[in-house]
Structures are given as structure tokens and as C-alpha cells.
Amino acid sequence: MGTMPDPSDFLAVDAELSAEERDIRDAVRDYANAELAPRIADWYESNTLPRDIAKGLGALGLLGMHLEGYGCAGTNATSYGLACRELEAVDSGLRSFVSVQGSLAMFAIHRWGTEEHKQQWLPRMATGDALGCFGLTEPDAGSDPGSMRTRARRDGDDWVLDGSKMWITNGTLADVAVVWAQTDPDAGSKGIRGFVVPTDTPGFSANEVKHKLSLRASLTAELVLDGVRLPADAMFPEVSGLKGPLSCLNEARYGILWGAVGAARSCFEAALSYALDREQFDKPIAGFQLTQRKLADMVVAVNQADLTAARIGRLKDAHELHPSQVSFGKMANVRAALDVARTARTVLGGNGITLEYPVFRHMTNLETVLTYEGTEEMHALSIGQALTGLAAFR
Known about the structure:
By secondary structure, the protein is of the alpha+beta class. The protein folds into three domains: 13-131, Orthogonal Bundle (Butyryl-Coa Dehydrogenase, subunit A, domain 1); 133-234, Butyryl-CoA Dehydrogenase, subunit A, domain 2 (Beta Barrel); 243-388, Butyryl-CoA Dehydrogenase, subunit A, domain 3. It is 50% helix and 14% strand.
């Protein structure tokens, strides 16, 4: 007979990890619990995230951790996923901060930039001394990025960018923005191209999005590009079309499918602890059948999501991961996490809506996570195309 399961890892999913992966998991978990968790409720309530967290995350090696060279840690994909899981167990905003820095801005420069771009930005971004953001989504171009209105035109040897981007995480903190824009066919550079834009370039501004009810421990911005003049070598030299930005989004979505497991686990753990302590009718509510059914449903959902993330991580490490499998993980795990958060809230009753507990904060965050980096509908269609060979996007 086996030992009694650990409620936080009921199926012993982490038993499959290597010693190095466990060390990374533990280091991120310990740091997040010691340095970030005690402050997260205040950050959420005040709708802020201090820039100085970047230095600590950089010192831990988490910024661009799955990239090779240029001061990056060069870990495997599973280790990066574990880091995302442990960060999002504290708050989705923290995982978003690391995702945007490493999987969007740094990955884009690492994968598509020139050697000069890489040398200029990546070492400082890895330490947290420079922060990046990723400008793709626009007010009228979300799920259909190909319809973006931001334009880049040639003027002599320079490029001049005009347009706006919306819902840009870290936009007001960033030292550099990776911006995607439509180029003029007459410029000999047809299609969507990526540009490395220092945020102190004249004509560039970032305006914080206010009044958010979700992902409040994260800074979200509108980027405005008004005649932003860049040298010719600011453009990524090789990639054109949507291949560039979509390759970056796939990296970020991979981190999200792990992060959602952390949010779900946090909600379940809070509900279990509360149910064991809270007494009604002369016994802990954990002793009532209806509450135990909720706890059982939650632990099944958390562990199924963890298994999904672990399998997708191994596929990615083996270089066998298809984008539709990332869609599977993102759609399934965020949906599961939302169900767990909502169920956990009912266990906590009125206490569940306060910031004294993490549950409602996770629940509201997950409503954003459900939508960004591809809505549930778009991921369903990605899976549908993989199943049928028929694209239903248009």
C-alpha cells in the first residue's frame, strides 16, 4: 500500500522531475512565498507592481531563463514552466511580468533580432536592469492581429512608425518595446514586420490603463507611436508576416498553461485549509459531504491540469510540441483553474471575497488569463483545425 497522497500534489506529478528541476521549483517557490506573497494583496489593491521586483527575479535567473547565452540561464522548458507555476501560485500578475519579459520581448529579440539587438538588450534584460514589452494587440485588432493599423513607412533610410497598441503588459515600465507594424509594399518590405523600439524615442508614449477589475498587480498600458523615427537596423531582418509574433505568443501561452496550475493549486489549498479550520454545526465544514465533494472535484482538476502541463513540458523539451497542443493546454488548464477558483470561493463563503485570502484575487485574474494570449474560442478553433484539417477562423 502506498503512502497517503500529499494534498498539494495528489498524484505525485512532481516525482517525475529531475533533481535540477526540483531545485528550480523549490527556489522559485521559496522566493515567491518569502518576498512576493506578503506584498501581493497590497499591490493588487493599489493596482501597482513595483519595478524593483525585476532585480530579484533577475538575480534568481528567471528572466529569459529558457533562452541560451547573453546572460540567460538556458534551462529546459519544464523548468521554465515550473517557475511560471510557482509565480502564478502567488499571482497571475507576477507570472505575466516574467512571461512578457522573457517569452515575448526577450524571446523576440533572441529569436528574430540582429546580433547587435541581442548584445544591446538581452544581458541587461536578463538581470532586470532593462525591461521590455511586446506591442502586437491593438484596440481594434485582438484575435485578428493581421488587421492591425499600426504602420511603418520608409523615409530615406529610416522607418517611421505611427499607430497604437493596447493591453500591453509592462508598457509603462519598459525600456524597450518590440512593436509589430504593417509595412508599405512599395518599401520593398511587404507585410508585418517587427521593430526594436527604445521607449525614450521621440513620439513614443505609454499610458497606463486604469480602472481594471482584474490583473491589478500588473501594469497595463496603451502604447502610442506618433511619428516614431527609427534607423533601418531597428527592424528584425528576416521574419515577416504573422510568423514572428505568433512564435512569441506560443512561448508565452506555454508559460500560461503552467501558471494556471499554480493559481488553481493556491485556491484549492486555501479552501482545504479554511474548511478544516472553519466550524459550523459543531464540526469543521470539511466534515460535511457537500464540502468534501467540492474538495475532491478541486483536487482532481488541479492534478489533471498539472499532468497536462507536465506532458506538454516534456513534448516541448523533446522539440515535438505542436502549437495546437499548446492551445489544448492553455484552454483546458485555464478553464479548470477558473472552475477551481469559483468552487473554492464557495467554500470560503463571505471570507472568499476579501483580500485576506487569495481566492477571489485569483478568480478575477483568471478571467483575464482566459482571454489574453488567445481567447478560449481561438484555442478551440486551433484544436479544431488540427483535428479536421479545416480552418474555421475566416
